[in-house]
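Data deposition worksheet. Section B asks for the primary sequence of the deposited chain exactly as it was used as input, without tags or linkers unless they were present during the calculation. Section C holds the resulting structure in token form. Section D is free text for depositor observations; keep each observation to a single sentence. Incomplete worksheets are returned to the depositor.
Section A, Depositor: J.P.
Section B:
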Amino acid sequence: MPRKAATESLADTDAAQGGVAAVDRALSLMSVFAPGDKALSLSELADRTRLYKSTVLRLLASLEHARWIQRLDDGRYALGGEIARLHGIYAASFSLEQVVVPVLRDLVAATGESAAYHVRQGDARLCLYRVDSPHPVRDHIRAGDLLPLDRGSGGRVLTAYDPVRGRAPGPEQDLYARIRADGYFAAMGDRLAEVAGISVPVFLLNGDIAAAVTLTAPVHRYVAAHLAAVQEAARRLTGKVG
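Section C:
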């Protein structure tokens, strides 16, 4: 009988409910490649996935056959050409709107307030997508509007995570350091006296900031507990946008 591992493998700790364990383990071999990894040895793959080397070798045989993994002349393993082929198909069919807007709709449904997706554009921020609150009293920003970087929760978050602006000496350096430490910014009246906002950063796969998800409400309807819903929206988008 196969030995039972003393420590659960990476795949076993996050197994797909109702899925196939062997598939989870094979996919975990590809997921452990990190930015900067050109190739990994058998030992590195076993260590990162917490799988036995014998198991890794069997999985690699199938992944090599399907061109998901390639074995190099020095014995190490690199990602294979099938990934590049599928990436081309994905890139051609990718629609940022189809990724972002459903998440914003869910955020509005959960909170009853307006949700937006802001990106940096030069010295301003662009409201790229917006889903309005069902309440008649709300702020009336629209998709396509340009807003300041130095006011409003979305602008503060985009600035805080900017590698230059967010760390430049100045009176607001402590504020931006706190935003990075907290992982969000919430404020009332930062851009407009009557408007409150909660913003959380959305990151690219390489760790750089891509955007800010923002929930806005009139000050009298502001609910600090809505932070959790904004964080969940940002988590769903992180790594899936570009």
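Section D:
Residues 59 and 65 are 10 Å apart (CA to CA).
The longest helix spans residues 96-111.
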